[in-house]
Amino acid sequence: MSDITIRKISSQSDKRKFVRFNYELYKDCPYAVPDFLEDTMDTFDREANPAFEFCEAEWFLAYRDGKIVGRVVAIINRRANERWGTKRVRFGWIDFVDDREVSKALLEAVEAWGRERGMTQIVGPLGFTDLDPEGMVFEGFDRLGTMPTIYNYAYYNDHMKALGFVPEAVWVDRTIKVPNGGHVANSEKFFRVAQIMEKRFGFRVHKFHSKRELRESGYIRKMFEIINTSYRDLYGYSEMSGKQMDKYAESYLPLMNIDLISVVDNREGIPVAVGVCMPNLAKAVQRAKAKLWPFGWWHLLKALHFKHSEAMDLLLIGVLPEYQDTGCVAMIFADIIESARRLGFERAECCPQLETNTKALSIWQSLESKVTRRRRTWRKGI
Question: What are the structural domains, with CATH classification, of the chain?
Fold first, then answer.
């Protein structure tokens, strides 16, 4: 008989314990970037997170002898299920000690919860939406992660196989060197293409002088609409609502460097492509011990404004389908490369891209890059 107890939680204090378990499990791991307490608590807030307009969720903690040994969130995204014709319950924010009784109990709790609501499959790790962390790392455990992504111990995958799960989607993480001599990109390829596209199609890069200007311009919604359109046929995607767009902007804009946001307008002044980078905050979050207060804010402030990492995170690239073969990506790269050089960044950590999205992956052919990590979702019938 198992000595594992699974508790369904709802109080703020228990959710704080839920979030902090990730930090405790990984505090001695040099490669893990722990969940940021304040941001994750905000994501779990039914009033604050617009995803709860079309999602329902339950939080579970696993205990042994009064000590937390695992956690998981069960999620049903009704919009994604309707879009893809599925009846899936997602598991997300899953962590556990290396004990199969723990992982088994956690995932069985998710399965039972989903089954009660008519679901026929369990899949994960996935969040409420595609801008939440997703995918379980199965290659590349010896590199520092990024704040927007999941890091996990290798044994997680052994547990999933033993519990009857099968692999589904695969993403790749990539490191891209900022061109600075001796590479094709430094021979002005992107800059030449950008000039040609500007003359031929009337495209231009729209830059903003301040975050306030970006907020007041109305471009934030337009940028997210490009992401909605360009990502809509990708694995499991559910379109963001206007409220979600506003929420993501509220969360991420304070962490942005305005020079690393690039939007391409067509001849009529309509935005058709977007690229968004931000300074890499992985080490700052580690030093802050994943909490903003009382002193974590200083580490983030320092990394953002005084002594940033040599790396930046490439969060998003989106191009409207009818413009995907017109050189818009070259214009975005030309702009971001110039800004990255000036700001002193040496490389970009590209957030996960689906391995099947060959068109998106092909854009790295003219840059010096390498795949540094692979991650996947797991699926099982229930």
Answer: 5-172 (3.40.630.30), 176-374 (3.40.630.30)
